[in-house]
Amino acid sequence: MKNLILFFWAVLLFSLAAASTGNAYAYAGNITKITGVSIDNANGAINIYTIGKPYYKGYLFKSGNKNFFILTFGQSILYGRGKKIAKPFKNIYSVSYSQFSGAPNYSVHIVIRQNLMAKPRIRTINLGNNRYKAVVYVFKKIKSSASIKGINFNVFIDAGHGGGDPGGIGPMGLPEDFVNLSIALKLKKLLEAKGIKVEIDRTSNINVSLRQRAEEADRSGANLFIGLYCNSVVVPYLYGTTTYYFHGNSYKFASYLEHYISSKLNLKYDGVVRDDLYVLRFTTMPAVVIEYAFISNPYEEHLLGSSTFRRLIAGGIANAIYKYFVIK
User: What gap in Å lies between CA 278 and CA 102, rounded to an integer?
Assistant: First the structure.
């Protein structure tokens, strides 16, 4: 209780100090909705997801021997209740967020208690369709010797569809084979940068049969097969991320990947499904297929059409593979 009282006194003193210096941030005119806050351990960051472009200002604040960095979002409303996350990183004691003020000057505070007085780097990423992510980098990750020298781990990437088989087509005409290939090529570069050997079944818009994909994967000697696909159905309102597996040795990573990617993309967790897909059944190594979003859903098609969002997918998959198979 004593720590909670000190925390709220610190926030109150900060608010009075900010008020005495005038406007702390520029108002956009519209209300920004903060839909979620998550911890990204792989990148040493805090992700703040918004609908509407966020406007924020950061302040360093000290109360006794406690160091705070306070990020104030102007003209913003927090969806859901505030929360305190204890010890998300070695150099961070806690991250708390809440609705700080109401009408007319709505504001949301993200309060980071640190072991040192340090102002973290912040960047805003446009996810498309008026959705954004503010990323607060609070912990600098050090490259491991594995990512510098290379590691004994190989991945086979299946870039789904291609050639005369475009896969699903979105309501606005976006073809799935283009999305899958774009993400596959980005994923290949990211994995190779981490020292992981990669083979891929296509690097252009050609058709590769399911049998060819499975046989090439087995010949490659890869430790992991990952198929990259979009989901597509007749009804346009289904949405979310789904991961498939068939053999028992693939379930644990399929579950890890599904949780990791759905949370990083801020999309609905649509489950881990055991399915008799050809490329899963007829490959000998652990094998998964991830359908990162529904191309048949207008909103998710819009996301998949964004190069920034496709980079986000590739980065999430690369980090999930590296964390699960290399670090763990």
Answer: 55
SS3 306: coil
Q: What CA–CA distances, in Å, run from 115 to 91, 138, 260?
A: 6, 11, 28
- Give the integer Cα–Cα distance in Å for 151 and 153: 6
2-137: what fold? Immunoglobulin-like (2.60.40)
Is-contact 223 283, C-beta < 8 A? no
Query: 81-85, 129-133, 284-288: which has the highest mean pLDDT?
Result: 284-288
Are 275 and 231 in contact by the 8 Å Cβ rule? The answer is no
pLDDT digits (tens, 9 = 90+) for 49-87: 999 999 999 989 888 888 999 999 999 999 888 999 998
- Which pTM was predicted? 0.57
Q: Do 152 and 195 touch, CB atoms closer than 8 A?
A: no
CA-based nearest residue to 34, from 51, 53, 57: 51
- CATH pick for 145-327 out of 1.10.1200.10, 3.50.50.60, 2.30.110.10, 3.40.630.40: 3.40.630.40
| Mean of pLDDT over the chain | 87
For residue 65, the model assigns a pLDDT of 85
Query: Where exactly does CATH 3.40.630.40 map onto the chain?
Result: 145-327
